[in-house]
From TrEMBL:
Keywords: Lyase. GO terms for cellular component: cytosol. CDD domains: Adenylsuccinate_lyase_2. It comes from Patiria miniata (Bat star). Residues 113-319 form the Fumarate lyase N-terminal domain. InterPro entries: Fumarase/histidase_N, Fumarate_lyase_CS, Fumarate_lyase_fam, Fumarate_lyase_N, L-Aspartase-like. This is Fumarate lyase N-terminal domain-containing protein.
Length: 397
């Protein structure tokens, strides 16, 4: 135990291993998120998106009449992915400003375009717009997988609609129902979640080019007070970023009410998953439903014969954490003074990646894969129930 109490340097000598194992790693990425969702919240995605947004802005400004050269745009486009992260980190330590650190770093590989990078923009032009892009892309990863889960659960419910089972109210024996009918309770809730999440995704808009306080003053100055040109600039950049609409009114940031919508819908999905998994855990005790038990799986270090519903337990654990986080955006929105305060920044950097990555429904992660119902067929990542007498046995692959 003495070695554990030694300094970090001594520990390095005692425990040779890769550097990645010497510091905290988020289990959301290491254990639960799909590769696609993990990349969506990565630094590469974030900062290449910043550079794309600067490119979109410069292209739109050129289109509307600013003196921006084609070779400047070409230089920016060629270097979108050429990011010196160490330089950016060093510059941020020096300037205490992440956006200006990356403006500087981008300018180092785009010297001809240095004067037009971030022209007229505020930090939230890249920060908030990138968040909205990442959130939208995350929903586009999540929703098709959730729809697939619903389709498979519907097939299971149809296949088991005539299999009788004892219903419970107050967790006491009640009247008979069927396995398929009970599954429809889960199905109905998931359909509501699909509806809510789809609505939130479709309601997302782009922040656009709104300036420091939402008045577009800096862009009006660039275009000699021509409001029509500034409106066109907003539309062009919004379209280049893949959005059909931008928010009509903003402060410096998009309204943090948007984050409440997003995270409330995700918390609702967490509640559904927790309810379904709790039902499965109770049914596992009754031996009506059983999670698969793989050939080399160990049920317990002390009791290896056990067949614990560990997948459902994991999902309940993650869902419970997801549900508790919804209070954060409520507090953030409540204390957004006037056009903006910066105390919304650090917690949003932490908060958004906590909510979405574990909802990946990925067969290779440890996220909530149990909701891929496959009827009587077992497929990768699937959850199949096999009927035997009065029991329903669930198997995974």
């Amino acid at each position: 135990m003495a070695g554990i109490q030694n300094s970090a340097g001594e520990m390095d000598n005692k425990f040779p291993c890769k550097d990645e194992y010497r510091k905290y790693r988020s289990p959301l990425v290491a254990r639960y998120a799909s590769p696609e969702m993990a990349f969506n919240f990565s630094d590469v995605k974030k900062f290449t998106t910043w550079r794309k947004l600067w490119l979109y802005l410069a292209k739109a400004q050129q289109t509307i009449g600013l003196d921006i050269k084609d070779d400047q745009l070409k230089e920016m486009e060629d270097n979108v992915g050429n990011i010196d992260f160490e330089m950016a980190a060093a510059e941020e330590r020096k300037r205490r400003h992440d956006v200006m650190a990356h403006v500087y770093t981008f300018a180092q590989c785009c010297p001809r375009a240095a004067s037009i990078i971030h022209l007229g923009a505020t930090s939230c032009y890249v920060g908030d717009n990138t968040d909205l892009i990442v959130i939208s892309d995350a929903f586009n990863l999540l929703l098709p997988r959730l729809a697939r889960c619903i389709q498979r659960l519907a097939s299971f419910a149809e296949a088991q609609k005539n299999l009788p089972t004892l219903g419970f109210t107050h967790y006491q024996p009640a009247q008979l129902t069927t396995v398929g009918k009970r599954a429809c309770l889960w199905l109905s809730d998931l359909l509501m979640d699909l509806r809510n999440l789809t609505r939130v995704r479709d309601d997302l808009r782009f922040r656009g080019v709104k300036g420091t306080t939402g008045t577009q003053a800096s862009f009006l100055a660039l275009f000699d007070g021509d409001g029509e040109k500034v409106d066109r600039l907003d539309r062009l950049v919004t379209e280049m970023a893949g959005f059909q609409r931008s928010y009509i009114v903003t402060g410096q940031t998009y309204s943090r009410k948007v984050d409440i919508d997003v995270l409330s819908a995700l918390a609702g999905l967490g509640a559904t998953i927790h309810k379904v998994c709790t039902d499965l855990r109770l049914l596992a005790n009754l031996k009506e439903v059983e999670e698969p038990f793989e050939t080399d799986q160990i049920g317990s270090s002390a009791m290896p014969y056990k067949r614990n519903p560990m997948r459902s337990e994991r999902c309940c654990s993650l869902a419970r954490h997801l549900m508790t986080l919804v209070g954060d955006p409520l507090q953030t929105h409540a204390v957004q003074w006037f056009e903006r305060t910066l105390d919304d920044s650090a917690n949003s950097i932490v908060l958004l990646p906590v909510h979405l990555p574990w909802c990946s429904f990925d067969e290779h992660s440890r996220g909530p894969t149990p909701w891929l119902f496959d009827g009587d067929d077992i497929s990768p990542g699937g959850h199949a129930f096999h009927v035997s007498g009065n029991f329903v046995r669930g198997e995974f692959t």
